[in-house]
Recover the amino acids of this structure.
């Protein structure tokens, strides 16, 4: 039997702008992928090495974001259940995501 995960997330206006600008997503896609990132994304604490160092640097810039997730090739920054912004992972770190 499968259990259904019920999570409510919100997306700030700034995050909508950034998902369009950086990932080419419209609002509908941004909502869908942000939810996936929130529920199933790789957590900051699960990362190691250069990727973790980069995430630490991003975290220091956005200290109000207490919830970072990696989903796809992007970092999704949440404050609680609100998506604040999204960043592309630098090209040289993309191979480390799959490890």
């Amino acid at each position: 039997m499968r259990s259904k995960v019920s999570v409510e997330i919100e997306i700030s206006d700034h995050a909508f702008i950034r998902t369009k600008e950086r990932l080419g997503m419209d609002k509908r896609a941004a909502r869908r992928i942000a939810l996936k990132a929130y529920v199933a994304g790789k957590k900051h604490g699960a990362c190691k090495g250069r990727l973790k160092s980069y995430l630490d640097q991003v975290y220091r810039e956005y200290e109000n974001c207490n919830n970072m997730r990696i989903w796809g090739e992007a970092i999704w920054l949440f404050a609680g259940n609100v998506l604040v912004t999204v960043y592309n992972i630098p090209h040289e770190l993309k191979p480390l995501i799959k490890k």
